[in-house]
Amino acid sequence: TLWNVYAFFVTYARLDGFDPTAPSIPVEERPDLDRWALSRLQGVVETFTEALDTYLVYRGVQAAQAFIEDLSNWYVRRGRRRYWKSSVDADKQAAYQTLYELLTTLVRLLAPVMPFWTEAMYQNLVRRADPQAVPSVHLSDWPVPDPEQRDPELEQSMGVVQRVVRVGRAARNGADVKIRQPLRSALIRVNDDREWAAVMSLDQHIRDELNVKAI
User: Fold this and answer.
1) CA-CA distances (angstroms) from residue 112 to 45, 61, 140, 157?
2) Distance (Å, rounded) from C-alpha 170 to C-alpha 63?
């Protein structure tokens, strides 16, 4: 799954001539999907580091695996149209910069347990763009969580949205109504005002994923 995400990025980055050394768009100015992924990444870095420090490597690998599934099945899938646009606007640049940061951080994080794949990705993602970078992923600095990128509220809200989408897709399957058939509305029952606020703040993701006009 990680290699598939990497291959997706490389394919479109080459087509658009993406330059990872270009000035970065501030995280706070990026869309909610980018900010959510970067926030999730900081938690994975923290968990993985603690797992290695306590010799419970499997816990770190499990956290990374769950994040990679989210990266593929939610972040890339929800944002893939951003890479397909013909013009390289600020939104597309933010998408590239975010996915590049996610991949290069994961590569350094997973290097102790996936030494060869991560080295291959590092050479292409980092060394090809910057020949002055350290010659191997195994010589690079260990990732450090950035508290400025943590947004627990956004993570919780996106988690609610993901659950709503899973239940909504299950309801469509149960009724044998294909996702490509648009529906007028989706009726959602949530547990409290916090979850309802999450649904309303990120409702575009739900409407797109469930192919409904209103919630």
Assistant:
1) 13, 11, 12, 32
2) 26
Torsion, Cα 164 170 173 174, to 10 degrees, reads -120
Predicted TM-score (pTM) above 0.85: yes
Nearest to 43 by CA among 61, 64, 58, 24: 64
C-beta separation of 122 from 62 below 8 A: no
User: Is the CB of residue 138 less than 8 Å from the CB of residue 110?
Assistant: no
CA–CA dist 13, 2 (Å, integer): 16
Q: pLDDT tens-digit profile of 12-46? A: 999 999 999 999 999 999 999 999 999 999 999 99
What confidence tens digit (pLDDT) does each residue in 88-109 have?
899 999 999 999 999 999 999 9
Please give the span between the terminal C-alpha atoms of the chain, in angstroms, as a whole number.
32
Element (H or E) spanning 46, and its range? helix 32-53
Q: Which residues contact 96 (CB under 8 A, 6 or more apart)?
A: 9, 12, 13, 16, 18, 83
